[in-house]
Amino acid sequence: MPDFELGDALTAEQRAFLDTHGFIRFKGFAGRDTVRSLIEEVEDIDRRLVREGRTHVNGVPLLFGVRKDGSRYIQRMVFASLFGERLGAFLRDDRFRAVLDVAGPGYRIAERERDGLVINHYRHEEGSTYQRLGWHTDSLRDVFYLEKPRRYLNVGFYLDDSPLSKGGVRLLPSSHEQGLFSMLTRKAYFLDHRPDPEEYALEAEAGDLTIHDGRIWHRVAQATATGDASQRRVMYLPLMTGPLKPKHEGSPTPLYFRLKRLAGY
């Protein structure tokens, strides 16, 4: 993959790459000092939510792991920016306007919608319940919300380096162009972890930004490294269009998460 950098707007080459392949990576979106500051806040939020005994935020379940000493930590944190000033400020970075522009007219950062800002914390060790994730498309959620699957973009920001030894995202390039039938049936959602001969391994470094189309087939491979060497944390924020549908503490848990629970997540 070319080493793209994100400026005030995506170039014609960058737009064409995203449209053709369904994903793109921008190197060095933020420096290491910014990354360290965000990690500090994420870890503070983690301790706070565990201490408060939270199991859901705005109806969306949190996913927990257990350390060797028996303490719990959050492996899938949702609506994270609602709990941290630094995370909220990060989402207001002017450069996200370039991402919103390529998404299309009327798109917004869905900070209070769907799952809000999600932070995935993968570790390969005993006690970790989030070590890998089977094949899926993000657009399946549209079906469970009784909506027609549509184009939307998921933006990922890496808090840790993500070499092949940490597993990481595997994508099927251009699969976002598929029809609805293929989107629903090409893979067994979340249950199928098998490598695909056509998959692309997305490597990244801390501070990199990625974008993938919600309709693309992708999975998260398990790390070959273990313990601290396997730690991989990525923040994801969805870009949404259409009517504003903010979540609140009284929001019900979407049926989509029942499917994930059946698959062991």
Could you explain how this protein is built, in words?
The protein is an alpha+beta fold. The protein has 7 helices and 14 strands. The chain has helices at residues 12-21, 32-51, 85-91, 96-103, 140-144, 180-185, 256-262, and strands spanning 23-26, 56-57, 60-61, 63-66, 72-77, 108-109, 118-122, 133-136, 153-158, 168-171, 200-201, 209-213, 218-221, 232-240. Strand 2 (56-57) and strand 3 (60-61) form a beta hairpin. The longest helix is centred in the N-terminal third of the chain and has 20 residues, at 32-51.
* Low-confidence segments: none
DSSP helix fraction = 10-25%
The secondary-structure class comes to alpha+beta
Architecture (CATH level 2) name: Sandwich
Tell me the CATH topology. Answer: Jelly Rolls
Measured by DSSP, the beta-strand proportion falls in 15-25%
Morphology call:
globular
Q: What is the C-level CATH assignment?
A: Mainly Beta
Seen as an oligomer or otherwise, the chain set is single chain
Distinct helical segment count: 7
The total beta strand count reads 14
For CATH, the homologous superfamily is named as: q2cbj1_9rhob like domain
Layout: helices, strands, pairs:
Layout: H1 12-21, E1 23-26, H2 32-51, E2 56-57, E3 60-61, E4 63-66, E5 72-77, H3 85-91, H4 96-103, E6 108-109, E7 118-122, E8 133-136, H5 140-144, E9 153-158, E10 168-171, H6 180-185, E11 200-201, E12 209-213, E13 218-221, E14 232-240, H7 256-262
Antiparallel strand pairs: 1-12, 2-3, 4-5, 5-7, 6-14, 7-14, 8-13, 9-12, 9-14, 10-11, 10-13
Structure keywords:
265 residues; alpha+beta; 8-stranded antiparallel beta sheet
